[in-house]
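Final report, closing paragraph on structural work. Over the funding period we assembled a curated collection of sequence-structure pairs, and we close with a single example.
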Amino acid sequence: MIEVANRIAEVKEYYFSKKLDEIREMNSRGCDVLNLGIGSPDLPPAKQVTDKLVDSASQANTHAYQSYRSIPELREAIGNFYRRHYNVNLNSTTEILPLLGSKEGVMYISMAFLNPGDTVLIPNPGYPAYKTAADMMGANVVNFDLKEDNNWFPDLEKLDPEVLASAKMMWVNYPNMPTGQKASSVLFEQLAAFAQEHNILVVNDNPYSFILNETPMSLLSAPAAKENCLELNSMSKAFNMAGWRVGMVCGREEYVNAILRVKSNVDSGMFKPVQEASVEALNLPDSWFEDINIEYAQRRKLAERILDILGCTYDSKQSGMFMWAKVPAGRKSEEFIEEILQERFVFITPGTIFGSNGEGYIRISLCSNKKMFNTAIERLEMVKA
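Its predicted structure, as stored:
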């Protein structure tokens, strides 16, 4: 038996990978589990986007290897999108790099900037991929707290000066997942200034800014943010293109080029029909976002009904495609959701998978149709009765 590399010796299988196996096994026994845990959009992309994909794929000259930087039209469309929606000016030639998904970008950025022993600041609660990528690079992970009583914002003044002296990178994620907390211009200005003061690369992971959020924002809109900040973005959530694997990283030319050096040695260029369809998506009118948010708002009302039945408390103004809620006093997150899963066959995500500060919280995904939500409500109301 060949031993695995040290870099993955402590890396565990992703929580949802294991849980989906468990749910499949339960379904094979006839349990009919309703999955309200996974954040995979169930709505289709715009018709003109899929039409463009089909048309482009039918052309004989679109199937060759593509540039690692992508076609110029895609980078220009991303630049125009950032200018139009975030009021951020980017050089489409040098400051934008399309990626095969933003989750892959988390790994590429970590590979480009982290050496073994470097310190990485990671939010707690936060997206598990940040820690996994840092661990695989042999970096030193230091969590910083996000707490409800501070609006799920980092308290930059409480960070240990000794840690800051050695820190090289910091991950932030606004609008926040899992908490749904929106960013503010003040927060982004503070983060940009913090990055410069401590010479830390601050990366904002920004895939949720158009879901149930009337004021989309980018960290790169803050003064001097490009000096020491990067932003990841994705077409998975806002455009219902999760399986297409289209993401992007934007920021300073030197940083983008460093990531390109990794990317060009790990993957190949994106399929040209996907790129051309992505251009079509990025040029969609604002009515596209308005329409999908009508649907998500209706689903959120049903999710709130579920949380009310379960005796949970929540902020009705949170954004993104999830509902984050506090479980009843004295209950543990994983015990709470496991009870619901085994007794009512409804799966909800425990907050603990996002870090220790997720204890006492759960997360419901809005990526299921209203019929499934109503069925879940019926099952849970039976318990209440």
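The CA atoms of residues 13 and 19 lie 10 Å apart. The chain has a mean pLDDT of 94. We thank the funder for supporting this effort.
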